[in-house]
């Protein structure tokens, strides 16, 4: 991710492209493994033996059972994207014209003597708190959505 961000122009669309390119294999691997597990489960075999067509089996038996794992994967990928974008912006590999909490932390850290004054409370703390609360919000949202099924 760092190598791609370093070679591409610092642009918000390039950052989105990098996050998509580096993030989709994780979700695809988890989804594929769960689908292969469900494919050989008893209720899917029974539906197949009963004469159900393949698309009916997928639509009625596999996809509904995939909902909890898909919600978890989407939430985890969202958290990963938030933290990755903040990290890239902190390292100076993000879009400088796009406001980012990582850029705010980068500029706060570069301020001389920030930790010896009260400036850290107003420069560093809000950005770090916002990142933490957003990630916590996604975790709680994922738990509440997963608990429904």
| Total number of strands | 0
Structural class: mainly alpha
Into which percentage range does the β-strand content fall? under 5%
The global form is elongated
- Tell me about the biggest sheet? none
| Average pLDDT | 87
Task: Report Rg.
Answer: 21 Å
Q: In short, what is this structure?
A:
This protein is mainly α and 149 residues long. The chain has helices at 2-7, 12-39, 42-49, 54-90, 101-110, 119-123, 125-147.
Describe the protein in words.
The protein has 149 residues and is mainly alpha-helical. The protein has one domain. Helices cover 79% and strands 0% of the residues. Helix 3 (42-49) packs antiparallel against helix 4, helix 4 (54-90) packs parallel to helix 5 and helix 4 packs antiparallel against helix 7 (125-147). It is elongated and about 75 Å long. The mean pLDDT is 87.
What order do the helices and strands come in, and which of them pair?
Elements: H1 2-7, H2 12-39, H3 42-49, H4 54-90, H5 101-110, H6 119-123, H7 125-147
């Amino acid at each position: 991710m760092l190598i791609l961000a370093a070679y591409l122009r610092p642009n918000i669309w390039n950052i989105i492209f990098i996050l998509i390119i580096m993030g989709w294999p994780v979700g695809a691997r988890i989804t594929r493994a769960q689908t292969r597990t469900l494919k050989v489960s008893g209720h899917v075999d029974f539906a197949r033996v009963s004469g159900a067509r393949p698309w009916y089996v997928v639509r009625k038996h596999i996809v509904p059972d995939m909902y909890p794992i898909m919600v978890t994967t989407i939430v985890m990928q969202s958290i990963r994207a938030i933290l990755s974008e903040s990290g890239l912006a902190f390292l100076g590999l993000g879009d400088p014209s796009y406001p980012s909490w990582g850029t705010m932390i980068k500029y706060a850290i570069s301020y001389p003597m920030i930790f010896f004054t009260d400036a850290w409370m107003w420069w560093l703390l809000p950005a770090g708190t916002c990142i933490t609360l957003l990630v916590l919000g996604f975790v709680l949202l994922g738990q509440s959505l997963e608990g429904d099924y």
